[in-house]
UniProtKB/TrEMBL annotation:
Pfam families reported for this sequence: IF4E
Listed name of the protein: Probable translation initiation factor eIF-4E
Record organism: Cephalotrichum gorgonifer
Highest classification ranks of the organism: Eukaryota, Fungi, Dikarya, Ascomycota, Pezizomycotina
Comp. bias intervals (Low complexity): 17-31
Stated role: Recognizes and binds the 7-methylguanosine-containing mRNA cap during an early step in the initiation of protein synthesis and facilitates ribosome binding by inducing the unwinding of the mRNAs secondary structures.
Length: 257
């Protein structure tokens, strides 16, 4: 991995102009250009000097929560929007130039969410939803950087759910004194969201509660597989409303896999 950005600079925007992406479009939708020898170079050939852009299905935003300084900061003071991206190449350019999770200070978080969705319970697209989460208590024996990378790749690669599910809002990693926690946020808690009024048919419209739970449990199983957890371990799903009422992100789980 390239040299990481100093932790103190995490609230500054990454300069996308340093990421070489051609604006011309190729036959399959990707943007292409050629080097001086007429060769097309992807990020998989050269992570710094590629000249091909592969569009992602959705646009994403990386957010960072910096540790509180003890000066009475609120959530909005701590939460920083780092950068938006919508291509494979931009993702790797960003990933190779930010601080690894293992080097973040305690009480830091990374949030990778779909464009237009803030990583907050109160966001209109999150307020009826919940999250799958797993907590690693033995931090010394956890390759958190690889685990977080794999969860991000699953999110931007749209492999955490089936295309018609429309549940995934974002993924989160929390760095705390005694643990790491990785989470996957969903639009619903398995029930239809009433009175949306925005023409959006994703997130459970027309589903029975049983079907809604089935969809969420499928996401939970995929989440568990990506984390490579043994069958004896469980991941828990809880609703954001329950978490807000309990005053903790560790609300009682609605179901587990």
């Amino acid at each position: 991995m390239a040299a990481a950005t100093p932790a103190a600079d995490m609230d500054k925007q990454v300069d996308l102009s340093t990421i070489p992406i051609s604006p011309s479009s190729g036959p399959s939708g990707e943007s292409t250009s050629k080097d001086a020898d007429g060769k097309v170079i992807t990020v998989f050939h050269d992570k710094e000097n590629f000249n091909v852009k592969h569009q992602l299905q959705n646009k994403w935003t990386l957010w960072f929560t910096k540790p509180p300084s003890g000066k009475g900061e609120n959530w909005n003071d701590l939460l920083k929007r780092v950068i938006d991206f919508d291509s494979v190449e931009e993702f790797w350019g960003i990933y190779n130039n930010i601080v690894p999770v293992s080097e973040l200070a305690q009480k830091s978080d990374y949030h990778l969410f779909k464009d237009g969705v803030r990583p907050e319970w109160e966001d209109p697209q999150n307020k009826h939803g919940g999250k799958w989460a797993y907590q690693y208590k033995n931090k010394g024996n956890v390759d958190i950087d690889t685990l977080w990378l794999h969860i991000m790749l699953a999110a931007v690669g749209e492999t955490l759910e089936d295309e018609e599910d429309g549940e995934i809002m974002g993924v989160v990693v929390n760095v705390r004194k005694g643990f790491y926690r990785i989470g996957v946020w969903t639009r619903t808690i398995g029930k239809h969201i009433p009175n949306r009024g925005d023409g959006d048919v994703s997130g459970g419209k027309g589903r029975s509660p049983a079907k809604g739970q089935e969809v969420l449990e499928s996401i939970g199983r995929r989440f568990k597989e990506i984390l490579k957890l043994p069958p004896t371990e469980t991941v828990e799903f809880s609703g954001h409303t329950d978490s807000a009422h309990s005053g903790s992100s560790r609300a009682k789980s609605k179901f587990t896999v």
